[in-house]
Amino acid sequence: MKFSESTDSSTVTELFRGSPEVPLTSDRNVQLFDTTLRDGEQAPGVSLTPAEKADIARALDRANVDVIEAGSACTGAGERETIRRVTDLGLDAKVTSFARGVQNDIDLALDCDVDGVTIVVPASDRHVETKVGTTKDDVVAKSQELVAYAKDHGLWVELLGEDGSRADLDFLERLAEAGFEAGADRSCFADTVGHTSPEHTYEAVSRLAALGPTSTHTHDDLGLAMTNVYASLAAGADMVHGTINGIGERAGNVALEEVAIALHHCYDMETAKLDELYDLAQLVARSTGVDLAPNKAVVGQNAFTHESGIHTDGTLKDDSMYEPYPPETVGRERRLVLGKHAGRAGVKAALEEHDVHVDDDELSAVVDRVKALGDRGKRVTDADLLTIAEEVQGRERERRVELKDLTAASGGGTPTASVRLLVDGEERVASGTGSGPVDASVEAVRAALGASANAQLESYHVDAITGGTDAMVTVEVEMSRGDRTVTVAASDSDITRASVVAMVDALDRLLAADPTSPVADD
């Protein structure tokens, strides 16, 4: 369906060829309104517990997000309990509730002790007439009544016309003006179904912003959520609704971490504590079960990862050669990975990280074997690289830790496991319990190695590499000890054994880098 609204050609020129109506400069005060706990939770399959919502709210507050929409008080008693849990945290951020255009929703929000509400009323003809079955005059009158009621009860109030991007602009302007007359703190332009263009967004927000403080709420169904945020800000909006990682209904909302870094990098505008963004994104991904795409801007695994020989060589010479901003800006670290595109500089740098030094001939041999592994579709882990170097240099590695035996059971009660390790030539046996056989086995390994060999499991990833009942799996782990990190992969038909073999090998590599460190069994 094409737009029925006309777009003034001068708007197109103004947005894309000339200066915006409201310049994007460092002295602009743009605020972030996070709706991860409300709109984000409406993504299919996402359901957050009260504890998870509280944890995310704390993380949002640490990132200096201005407004946190904690949920919809009208949803039910459980949701209200969750909202109260957030309001009881004593956050610096303003905590709000979503409220439909009925007084009871505002009363329920007040019972949750929120700071404010976003009152959502129909704006487009299809919502006014088909969904709600009312008239535009009634929507305006009811909106004024609700805004006045909420303000009389001490709430911060935002009035949002649902499906605003498909609404008649004269009516949208009339609705916002009525809201401001009744005392609303701001209006909000809502592209509820991700339908509109940046030109139309610019025109609509320009008209609303002329009346008072205006927010923008964009969805990504056309891949234009971020562009429409820019158009909104250029038109005078001063608050952006969004979610962490861009989760939300259908194609999701604009990703707040992308808004924050883009405004910082391109316009020197500060909207959030940027070095909190990665941890926040990871927390939301774990809590929602919605994994981050590797190529996701800002927080994806590949955002600061380099494999290409040309890129790696350039990055080693100049950190900013192939990156728009330093990874530390958003709480990340740069990673050089090896594969079919690896070059000499990258392989040499990776070896030196593990205190392995090679001459030119040895380096050439290692690079050839790394590329051969990559050509077979295999990601080259740290353990692979070190093994290749050992073979090229004719070195025999003395293992400090070796798995000799593993037994794990999970049926009929608490999962248990026992391991037999050879540690610096001494046999050690230990057992452990856990939430599953893998967890129990890891606890058994930790018990056998003791506190001085403690290492952190940074990541754990499983891939099925064959089908059928005897399917092989590959477990890849990343572990760190002190300032050293190592990545190891192991394959087996038993996921528990593959996990333990990978972790033990990683621990062995980490301990081998510090030969003076004893492996305690206390």
From TrEMBL:
GO terms for biological process: L-leucine biosynthetic process. One of its GO terms (molecular function) is 2-isopropylmalate synthase activity. Residues 1-13 have a biased composition (Polar residues). This is D-citramalate synthase. It comes from Halogranum gelatinilyticum. PANTHER family: (R)-CITRAMALATE SYNTHASE CIMA (PTHR42880:SF2), HOMOCITRATE SYNTHASE (PTHR42880). Residues 30-278 form the Pyruvate carboxyltransferase domain. Residues 1-23 are annotated as: Disordered. Keywords: Amino-acid biosynthesis, Branched-chain amino acid biosynthesis, Transferase.
